[in-house]
Amino acid sequence: MRFKLLFVSIFLFSGTLFFSQEMKNYTENGISLDGNYYGLPLEGKFGYKFRKNNFSFSPYSGVVFDVKDSYSLNAIAGIDFVYRSFQLENRVYYELLPSFTKNNYNFVTYQIAPAYTNDLFSIKLPVSYGHKKFYKTDNTSFNGDFFSSKAMLNTHLIDNGIVRVTGFFEIEEISIFNRQINYYNVLFSLPCTFYLSAFDFGIKYDFSLAHELSFENINPTEEVRISFPYSKITKRFAFAGEENNNEIIHSLEFEQRFYPFRGKNLSSNFFLSLFENIGFSLKTDGDWKILYQYGLGLGYNLYDSVPFTMQLGLNQDNRFILFIGVISNINHRP
Q1: Which CATH code fits 118-323?
Q2: What does pTM read for this prediction?
Q3: Largest distance between two CA atoms of the chain
Q4: For residue range 261-273, what is the model confidence (pLDDT) as tens digits?
């Protein structure tokens, strides 16, 4: 209980010193609309923004959709402080779907996330505490308090108008209180896109790892499911379900976009697309499996480099898959 009170206190007052010297006056204010559509989680925020010179202050509320162990929809409320290239994000997540359907459990997460951004890279260090559902290896579930710390790095490697290469790395450590469970996740992505007059060619390498942490004299009381499905990487989900016991995945994806109307109008951004990926999976039982997906889609390239798309295809089990992200899986974060 003391830990929870301490964490909430930090959440409420972490921006005070950062904010106090600049709050006397502001030179700009207004309603703000913001969000994240560069892959999951999808996020939309509505708020009010105050700005003076290099400092801004933004309270907001909104919703977040994500797919991890299962589909989730969260209401969020928070406040962001920005000074030059530094950002301090404070927010609360309230998970709507389980909270409304599972005996009124309150799945609430508090998060503080300092960040730094420049023209070459951005780094974000979220720290979270909350209460949510966890799944066991036998597919049953339990509700528990958890603490997580994460490091996220996004880099801009090449961007010359024809070739664009970026990289994304994320590592997260999670501890589940009262169950003595500790594990970590690692994600790495390296997308590359070639832009031609009527075609875009994309290639992307992904790596994902989930592994339990072992400590002397600490014995977990549950066998929690820390593995994940292939769709966590591809963002394409099978209608009939899929295996989710992958501990390590290597994946290579290709996408081709064709702009059929650019012969008459060079500014046309409507495209047709094909996608293919192949992956290697090491399972929790020590077995391995080849994974793949292929299909087609259509979309619109917003701002000349943000490919909104819809895609449908098949996977290695000949099951229909649907892309539920908004932006193509081969995209470049801002």
Answers
A1: 2.40.160.50
A2: 0.83
A3: 70
A4: 988 888 889 999 9
